[in-house]
Amino acid sequence: MATIIRPGAGPKARAQSAVPLMVGLVLVIAVCAATFADVRYAPVLPYALAYVAIVAATWRRLAPVALSPAFYLSAYLCVVAVLGVSVGDQLSGAGGTGFTDFLLDPAISARTASALFVAASLCLIGAALVRRRPSHIAIGDLLDLGDLSKYAKWFLLIGVVELAVLAYIVGINEIFERDSRLLGRGTNIETIVSMLAVAVLVLVGIAFFTSKGALRFLSLVLILGFIAYFVSMGSRRLALVPLLLLLAYVFARRGKLSVIPVVIAAVGAVVTLALPLHFRGQASHGLLPYMASLSSFSLSPEMLATSLNNFVAGFKITAVTGFQSAKIPTEALPISLSPLDGNVVGWYEVAPLLRINRYTPYSAIGELINYGSLVFVVILLGLGIVLGFSQVLNDKLLTSPLGRLVAILALGLIFMFVIQSSQYNLRSVVRYIYLALGAQVIGVVLVYANRALHRREGSRATT
Question: HSE (CB half, 13 Å, CA atoms) of 141?
């Protein structure tokens, strides 16, 4: 069971403070360096210092930060801010940004970075309002889900169903070859199934690492099927595949980890992050054209710069969305936040307005900036409250192996929300949070029902 740690009690609690504070200080140092390089970025520094102060004031309630969704989002937004003001202009011209590869006015860059630091601070404040007590669980205990080999057949069945549904919804022909890079029809069902593909790949990976013979062979076939699907999408989610398989490997070994798999996964992630950018430059799209183009792919310094520029592009997209685009109609906000199907709420009528160009949508954070200060503050503070509530639910889930599996799934979904928040529409990314919360609520119900059942059986045995 996760044990409660009182603020400041013991070396573990003190050690937890090092991570968030060091992250904050490194970010401030980076902002200082950018300020010395160009004094026009000096207005960002007070917001960066305020962020560090808020981290220092909230880390106790959010500990351990390794399991804090709010800290994930706040740290990511600050990293985007720092990279935007420090290397954004230097990477201009490297490509890979969906026609947003341009120089920003330093004043706009400073306003954007400041807004990102404010967003990060509001998120931490909101989470701290909800989660009043820290908890501690060792990472090794978190990743030890027990003997999962007995579930291998069920994991494989889930994998077969997931791939079959994906192929049916998207279409076999579109997966293999199509004219447009964009894949799918954007319905809620398709979005949910696509999101679940990430989690299901982990389950299939667990089956591969815990089984032998025919089951392992079937697991390998399914893994290759999922990789083929991600390749055909030309999506940066392809870069998650090595990391997801590493996570499956750790689960299969009950939380044990060695250096070699980590190195292999890290190298694989770098390569697979560059591949989608190469695929997007092809004349035709889909699995067959992309595989045929591999002979011309090379991981050159230019390609690495393009990959980094693709990540930093989130800063420019947010800047253009928030400060240089036409005012977004107010009625678009409830549509973007609604969990209902797009056809029901009228999403497809407003979606064309929320794009920089055909290939680049507005960013979620940029949309909130565009709506004005009041909406920006209220939504970011509310988002922090939701992420804090998510961590509270995970506190309840971490007390059992089943609950830990659900908690890790929820963290993975929220991580997808985090890394896409600076480059995709608010509606596109907020659904990850809805899905994560739904999984957590169901998980908490199952954990408590299972606990009640065991107590009842124990009572009967005693009687």
Answer: 11
Residue 354 has pLDDT above 50, yes or no: yes
Angle, in degrees to the nearest 10, between helices 364-371 and 426-462: 110
Let me know: does 433 contact 336? Beta carbons within 8 Å.
no
| pTM score of the predicted model | 0.80
Least confident of 27-36, 77-86, 207-216, 428-437: 27-36
Q: How far apart are CA 416 and CA 243, in angstroms?
A: 13
Instruction: Render pLDDT for 114-160 as a digit per residue (tens, 0 to 9).
Output: 999 999 999 999 999 998 777 766 666 677 777 888 888 999 999 99
Strand partners, 357: 360
The stretches of 184-236 forming alpha helices (DSSP H) are 188-210, 213-233
CB atoms within 10 A of CB 389: 18
Q: From CA 34, how far away is CA 89, in angstroms rounded?
A: 12
Helical (H) or strand (E) element with 141: helix 139-143
Token pair 């996570």 in the structure block, residue? 247
pLDDT beyond 60 at 14: no
Cα–Cα distance for residue pair 417/70, rounded to 1 Å: 11
Cβ-based neighbour number of residue 296 at 10 Å: 9
Determine contact, residues 255/310, Cβ cutoff 8 Å: no
Backbone φ and ψ of 220, nearest 5°: -65, -40
